[in-house]
Amino acid sequence: MGKFGFALSxxxxxxxxxxxxxxxxxxxxxxxxxxKCMACGSCTASCTAGKFVKTSMRSAILALxxxxxxxxxxxxxxxxxxxxxxMVCPRAINTRHLIISILKVYQ
Amino acid sequence: xIYQGKQKIWSDYQKEIPDDHYFYVRSCIRQNLFPASExxxxxxxxxxxxxxxxxTEHHTTxxxxxxxxxxxxxxxSMTIIAxxxxxxxxxxxxxxxxxxxxxxxxxxxxxxxxxEFPELEAKxxxxxxxxxxxxxxxxxxxxxxxxxxxxxxxxxAAQAKYKLIxxxxxxxxxxxxxxxxxxxxxxxxxxVGGAEYPYVLAGMIEAWGGEVIDYPERxxxxxxxxRQYHVRSNRGYSLSNTHKKFESMEPYKPDMIITNCxxxxxxxxxxxxxxxxxxxxxxxxxxxxxxxxxYEEVAGLVMGYNPWDLGLQMHQVGPEPVLDKMxxxxxxxxxxxxxxxKDIGRPELPSCGCL
Lengths: 107, 355
Hints:
The structure holds 2 protein chains of 2 kinds. Chain A has one domain. Chain A has 6 helices and no strands. By secondary structure, chain B is an alpha/beta fold. Chain B has 16 helices and 8 strands. Chain B has a 4-stranded parallel beta sheet with strand order 2-1-3-4. A 4-stranded parallel beta sheet of chain B has the order 6-5-7-8, with helices on both faces. In chain B, about 45% of the residues are buried. Classes of the chains: A mainly alpha, B alpha/beta. At the A-B interface, loops of A face helix 13 and helix 14 of B.
């Protein structure tokens, strides 16, 4: 913490001009529903795996939009493909299919 | 956008500022941080511009710091404010002007709350009578002191001895303007230009010959924020805000920063020292920081006041580079002499040898 007892926090700034949008465009092409997400978090709240490991569909989509692809994959690694998130999504996004598509495009 | 449409939007952000006869209220902290700013404001308005600005020793704090730190409830701060307004009424004034941005935000918030909840206003009037035996009154007009300097910016320019122009190159100084959050962001229509088109300081800079820098994080908070700063463990958040602003303005190579809030100039000034200690980085020329000023100090410099009478020796980042550029003479030996020639001490230099 240095001599002052506090320190600079790492910057959370994202320069979207420098983010590679090619993969996200490809994802949108095969899963246009990804743009329908309004980040309500119902998927994350209902996630079975999320209670035990860091799993969050909402955070994954946000990370993809911000070009943080590795973070997005980490948010989906624990997914069991149980499909509960698909049932609760108010925008009727087929989240299970979307997760598979994300892993196909980004992995 | 159609020109008329733009004009209409801009008209929403304009402020009718009365010419004269104000009841002036000082800030709790500015006299410690920037000791001559308020004195300079009164000297300029009263003696240089010939206006009537009255102040009384009976006014107190507005209670803003305690209110924002959750130390006192809103009704208490409202009663304190009602007492301030009552003093204004008692001395025969209708226009109220405060030196502090936190106060300005709180006064505006209070007046708006009373407007929306008249029963609360009646309760506060009752509290005021029970506690102070003073008659409840509201100002006809509420201004921040920077509104006044903005209003008289051209009169000040007419009396100016120096301009915000580099005397050697003839180019205007590049100036970063930073308005306090509680000035334009809480009630944008109560400020000149709101937060979207901040013009109160930009107008002064343009009138006095400088060039305003429009950088990406121009509207970002300075990093003060009562909750962030007053808890030591949260100060990293405050510092990071300031760091973000400096990183954003750095490519534009500003010569100076002007602010209109008590907290902003303090933090933009002092955090440069902390950043230089932690990161070894400075943002001004030749390893120095960027000098930070209050608008009264800049008005004083433009009008030819002695820099050391303006209290510029109390700044962490030395003002000398700006004084040299503007061609303002000063005696370095007088820098740390108080009013009676007494040595007032020197600030500690950062270990990286900059600022």
